[in-house]
Amino acid sequence: MRKNVLLADDEHAVIHSLEQGLAEYKDVFSIVSATDGEEAIKKLAREDISLVVTDLKMPQTDGFGVLAHIMEFYPDIPVIVMTGYSTTEMERLASQGGAVGYIPKPFKPNTLAGLIMSWLGRQAEGGTLHNVSSGMFLQLIEMEQKTCTIRLVDKDSGTKGVLFFRDGELLNARVNSTQGEKAAYKIFSWEEVSLSIQNSCRCRNKKIEGELQAILLEAMRLKDEREGPLGTPEQKNSVVAASEMDEKAREQKKAAVMVRIKKRLTDKIGSRYQVDEICYDNSRDGLLGQMSRMGKFFSCGTLQVVYMDAGTSKGVFLLPGEQTLTIAVDSQFPRDRMIETLLEEHTDNDG
Amino acid sequence: MGNNFEELFSLNDVKGLMLVSFDGQLLFKKFAGTLPQEPKSDDSWALFIHSLRGAAETEVFYEKGRIYIRKTESGYLFVITGVATPMALVRLNCDMLAPAMKKIVKRDRFKNLFRRN
User: Fold this and answer.
1) A289-317 tens-digit pLDDT
2) Which of A120, A192, B34, B91 has the fewest CB within 10 Å, making it most exposed?
3) Which of these three, A167, A194, A227, is where a domain ends?
């Protein structure tokens, strides 16, 4: 099956040149392009990407931001970084950030192709199995205390998922942009899968707390609840319709949150001060992930609100969530009152 | 000026101070109690510092604590506090500390910032 390789570079000429240079590999992978980090992050959420090649120097979200985002939300996707400003320090930072390859510009397309083919090949280095039941196989992984990344495809729906194991312990699961137990339940509900095994695991964070056995049991229970005693096609269709309604409800909820926050700000702070912009923006999620880990390190609990001085007399408030709410303000904005308001919003939301 | 670090550390509910260089080296640390794990110069700080994208000030609010991060001439100063510390006082103390942070390169000079005059 042909894979998608995401290529991010703000220079159109580079993208065009690489698309041409890599055309001979079109039977193995096709190129999805992005001209900046933000577009790359959006495409990761929308498309099935197997590998990312990113320039480091890009406007707004740079290559390091893309790398941090991928390591946080898509740790199974290898990242190769390329840069025209290559230094030993850059290479060290890229490696520490989780990049699997580093390639200074200029380079021949075949050099990049070699790296891409090598990393795509590793995704099935431990073997591929078809038409298996995932539960039994995964219990074997646990017993043998394997460290691996398992990529699965549901035979029924064609949906893809990833499981991350270290020493037999299930660290995380991913289905598209869903992670953790929710993704694990979805994967374990698949009757028959094809799976491929990579003999390494790049996942750094444990996002699943329960034992594998407990997760498997819960997945079966949830599946039974959804399907009912018969699991008829009509009931399956109603699950699909329900998930479409869920998506619509999520969008409505997001819009309602923004309206509520605007009203709360006007009530608390008045109309003398205006925010420049309120929007959902996930470009800083890599940084927020690092801040969350820092909070755990210092026993500060869960991350609630962040303020950053963005320079040039501007500031930005970040409210982490399923999607990060970003509020851009002038530096004269009453910061402490704003923080108090956002913390109240966070508390009310949790309650 | 010599007692500014001490003043910052003596604010109510301040739990720790760290100074991290622009390339992610841990230059100085002082904590009020024992941490489950001591922070040390390792790879994660370099990436975190880079991710700050040069922000002059960052305030991070958690359920049970705060971290105030100020960019200085010598690196990023991290002030770890509980929920009771008034952030305005932390900012003010960091403003007062800023001139003393200039031209500090050697690690042992940080200890002087804790001496009282």
Assistant:
1) 888 888 888 889 889 999 998 767 788 99
2) B34
3) A227
Determine the residue among B50, B61, B90 to mutate to test chain A binding: the one whose Cβ has the most chain A Cβ atoms within 10 Å. Answer: B61
Omega cis (within 30) before B99: no
pTM: 0.59
How close A350 comes to chain B (CA, Å)? 11
Beta strand A303-311 pairing with A79-83: unpaired
ipTM of predicted complex:
0.85
What's the CATH number where A268 sits? 3.30.450
What residues pair up with A33 in beta bridges, in sequence order? Answer: A7
Q: Which residues of chain A are within 8 Å of residue B55 when distances are taken between CB atoms?
A: 308-311
| Number of CB pairs, chain A paired with chain B, less than 8 A apart | 94
Q: Do A301 and B62 touch (CB under 8 A)?
A: yes
Strands (E) located in A118-179: 128-132, 148-154, 160-166, 169-175, 178-179
Query: Alpha helix locations (H) across chain A?
Result: 12-21, 37-46, 63-73, 88-96, 109-122, 134-143, 180-188, 212-227, 233-269, 285-297, 335-350
Residues A173, A73: one domain? no
For A93, nearest residue in chain B (alpha carbons): B47
- The CA distance from B75 to the nearest CA of chain A, in Å, is 16
Scan residues 69-108 of B and list those with Cβ closer than 8 Å to A.
80, 87-88
Give the tens place of pLDDT for each residue, A202-250: 888 888 887 777 888 888 888 777 765 545 555 556 656 666 666 677 7
Domains, chain B, ordered by start: 4-105 (3.30.450.30)
